[in-house]
Amino acid sequence: MTAELLAAPFSDAELAALRADFPILTRSTRSGKPLVYLDSGATSQKPRAVLDAERRFYETRNAAVHRGAHQLAEEATDDFEAARAAVAGFVGAPAHEVVFTKNATESLNLVAHAFSTTTAYAQRGTAPAGQVVDPRFVLAEGDEILVTEAEHHANLVPWQELCARTGAVLRWVPVTDGGILDVDALEGLVGERTKVVAFAHASNVLGGVAPVARLVAAARRVGALVVLDACQSVPHLPVDLPALGVDLAAFSGHKMLGPSGVGVLWGRAEVLDAMPPFLTGGSMIELVRMERSTFAPAPQKFEAGVPMAAQAVGLHAAVDYLRALGPDGSGVARVEAHERALTARLLGELAELPWVRVLGPQDAADRVGLVAFTVEDVHAHDVGQLLDDEGVAVRVGHHCAWPLHRRLGVTASTRVSFGPYNQGSDVDAVLRGLHRVRVLFA
């Protein structure tokens, strides 16, 4: 049996040891209550191993990577490239298919930029030396980009802007009244003009995991490229990106116990090779003359300037930490099991409150570890404020998914999102806070 099938939630002793690795969990809030952190979907907390790795880099290795010939620069470069290899291995990929960016938003913008730049080359009839004009990245007026109605703005607005620049048309897979992707609509949405299919692996509002195989199959039938927003899946599920069949995927370090300021774009090597660079300048070049320049191969051609070396080192430590949470590197499977148990507990309790509406799938088996909900006749901001008074940190608003909230007929929602460090008493704290909300707003 696989490690995923054998995975179990953390025992009380394991969880206590794990929580001790996160210094911030020992603090109190302004109300004097212990911190109950339930906003990992926005950003995760960091274990000491990550904090120490980043600080140690600055204390002992700090130098500009891929530049100097001195010892510090060599050591810094080795650390940076070791981080690339570790992150790639975490998602089942070879190192040369991982590009470091600032965050997943930049990664997705990089991909959208590849289409607009290649389209401009094709329209002009020329391209920089060494840059191939790959027809997969050329958009004509009337070509189509398919997203879903559940997308985070980071996987929606770049495509809207690309359509505005090229004359392409944005289409979307609708969401049902129950907050489920209506994949039966694919047959009428995917056609010969579809050039891109872009979607979230797991919704940051609905929690539902997308039917990746079905979406990929629909794209493959028409030769469209598949772009995956993996921000809410990579930290919480065992993910093998190449095995999913997608072409490109984006995720962020700060959501997977790593530092802010470092993100990842994974792409199949031949797809990355076909894409033009996003930012230009130092490090990403091959040869520079006054008349023209040629560019380094991927992934270096996408990493202009001095990269985020310390943050990448911190992300390496986060990957190692997550792997070590289970035997033989199966830690993410343990995280999935642990968070699913907490999600099932929360969903079960919320189902007993008729004045609470849960958005998305009602079964924890169909979700990652987050739950967004509304409280009858109470604005999400008021819910969040009262929970904050109890020391409970949750996310309120439209969670950068404004069109989805409109579709579901809600102004805003309250979102609980779990990390590996959460415990059953955190669920209890949410429920106590919600009952207080009900009393105060009755």
TrEMBL record:
CDD domains in the record: SufS_like
Gene3D superfamilies: Aspartate Aminotransferase, domain 1 (3.90.1150.10), Type I PLP-dependent aspartate aminotransferase-like (Major domain) (3.40.640.10)
Statement: the UniProt record of this protein carries the keyword Transferase: yes
Residue ranges annotated for the Aminotransferase class V domain, each copy included: 36-430
GO biological process, one term: cysteine metabolic process
Catalytic activity: (sulfur carrier)-H + L-cysteine = (sulfur carrier)-SH + L-alanine
Stretches of the chain forming a coiled coil according to its record: none
Signal peptide range: none
InterPro entries: Aminotrans_V_dom, Aminotrans_V_PyrdxlP_BS, Cys_dSase_SufS, PyrdxlP-dep_Trfase, PyrdxlP-dep_Trfase_major, PyrdxlP-dep_Trfase_small
Cofactors, names only: pyridoxal 5'-phosphate
Annotated EC: 2.8.1.7
GO molecular function: cysteine desulfurase activity; pyridoxal phosphate binding
Family statement drawn from the similarity comment of this UniProt entry: Belongs to the class-V pyridoxal-phosphate-dependent aminotransferase family. Csd subfamily.
PANTHER family listed in its UniProt record: CYSTEINE DESULFURASE, CYSTEINE DESULFURASE 1, CHLOROPLASTIC
Function field: Catalyzes the removal of elemental sulfur and selenium atoms from L-cysteine, L-cystine, L-selenocysteine, and L-selenocystine to produce L-alanine.
Name this polypeptide is given: Cysteine desulfurase
Source organism: Kineococcus radiotolerans (strain ATCC BAA-149 / DSM 14245 / SRS30216)
